[in-house]
Amino acid sequence: MREILLLSIVTFSFGIFSANAQNMPEKIDFHRAVNMAWAVDPVRTELQVGHHSAKARSSAAGSWFAGGPTLSGEYMDDHAIGSNEGYTTYQGGVSVPLWLPGQGSATRQVASAEAASLDEQLNVEYLSLSIRVLDGAAKAQIAQERLKAAHQLYEYASRINSLIAHSAHVGESSSSESQIAQSEMENARNEQALAQEYLENSQAELEVLFAQPVEVDLSHGADMAHVRFVEPRDMEDNDPRVKAAHKNVEAAQANMKLARRSFMPNPELGIDVIHEKQYGSPWDDRVGVNFSIPLPSEARNTPIMSEASNRLASANSQEIQARRMVHLEISRVRARLMAATAARQTTRIAAANMQKRAAAEEHAWRVGEATLETVMQAEQAACNAQFANARAEVEWHVATLRMMIAMGITP
Q1: By C-alpha distance, which of 404, 265, 260 is closest to 336?
Q2: Does the pLDDT of residue 232 top 50, yes or no?
Q3: CA 232, CA 15: separation in Å to the nearest integer?
Q4: Are 375 and 362 in contact (CB under 8 A)?
Q5: Which of 33, 110, 141, 216: disulfide with 254, CB 3.0–4.6 Å?
Q6: Which long-range CB contacts under 8 A does 87-92 form with residues at least 24 apart?
Q7: In the CATH scheme, what is the homologous superfamily, with its name and number, of domain 25-405?
Q8: Cα–Cα nearest to 227, from 403, 393, 396, 345
Q9: What's the pLDDT tens digit per position in 132-177?
Q10: Angle at the Cα of 313 (from 312 to 318), degrees rounded to 5?
Q11: Inter-CA distances, 353 with 142, 145, 346, 360, 385, Å
Q12: Are 215 and 25 within 8 A, CB to CB?
């Protein structure tokens, strides 16, 4: 009774899967998939906010003064010392910080360089997202092919098991063959369940990128017949990661220039107004100028220059590492494309041959020239070869799309 209940649950589960499979969303091509993922990418929003902030800083650096005005005021009389002779003074002033020579333009250059760097960071994120979508779609498509192969093997094992059960009932098959057929069917059922789990996990990972269920078709757009050849050196120079690293170097250089221009605190210049009354004298008003010039100090300047130097050295190092990393990645992408092209051809031939072998073994078994175990092994090998062929096809499309992305083409 428990076995029947378990079988009903499993059957019901696969029925749900079949219904869900029929309600799967329409397939979209890779280009549309990347655009959909880009529209909901949180990193894109973060980088865009940072870009607008850098533009705002650049605009603010065009101000006439290095900061906001400072208001000051004083009030003094002779009551606090016990005298009441009428000595009263009101004094107020306003001053503004001034730019040091070249400091304003250097500040604008830093903000503009940081905005340009964030522009390239957006391109880097778009590239990274494209690769994540490609990998996720490939994983989901391979999972579908694995489940398809598992279904095929299970259907074959079920058919053979039914034949053996009927033969055993009429006394034409031994119990050992019945046990083999039952065992192979259960193994196929287990592989089917594992393949289903792998497919659901891969679809869930892909759904994270789109915030909705999406099925990506990688077979469209992977055509390099009309793609113009690009030199590896040009591919490196045009890679967003190399460009972003170079923009970071430019921003660090601009920051170094700003640090040199900020060799002292900003001086302040303003006006003062005094309104006072002295004993026995009429009210007296005076207007004057005030200024404040802090002198340079190594205690202040050395940390600023050190930080700017460290930032520039780090940016230079990251640019070299980015170029090396991109160079290595392009080499790997080209090698992967060649290997995938060869695998696509060989697995296709192998799958066709293994299918013929499985058919021949089944015929030999029916006429009593082969054992059931040999037949099941041949069918298992044929299903594995079919899955390897389907996987090689997907990986070839992935390698082609990845090569186009490395060439700066959005498929």
Answers
A1: 404
A2: yes
A3: 51
A4: yes
A5: 110
A6: 87/276, 87/277, 87/278, 87/279, 88/276, 88/277, 89/274, 89/275, 89/276, 89/277, 90/274, 90/275, 90/276, 91/272, 91/273, 91/274, 91/275, 91/276, 92/272, 92/273
A7: Outer membrane efflux proteins (OEP) (1.20.1600.10)
A8: 403
A9: 999 999 999 999 999 999 999 899 888 888 877 766 666 666 677 7
A10: 95
A11: 22, 19, 11, 11, 9
A12: yes
Contact 144, 199 (CB under 8 A): yes
Give the integer Cα–Cα distance in Å for 145 and 339: 20
pLDDT single digits (tens) 314-369: 999 999 999 999 999 999 999 999 999 999 999 999 999 998 998 888 888 788 77
Report the DSSP pairing between strands 215-217 and 88-97: unpaired
Of 187, 186, 163, 183, the closest CA to residue 173 belongs to 163
Q: In what order do the strands lie in the sheet with 283-292?
A: 70-77, 88-97, 268-277, 283-292
CA dist., res. 319 & res. 306, Å (int): 20
- Helix 175-210 and helix 30-39: axis angle, to 10°? 50
Neighbouring CB atoms inside 10 A of 411's CB total 22
**27-29 vs 215-217, strand pairing mode:** parallel
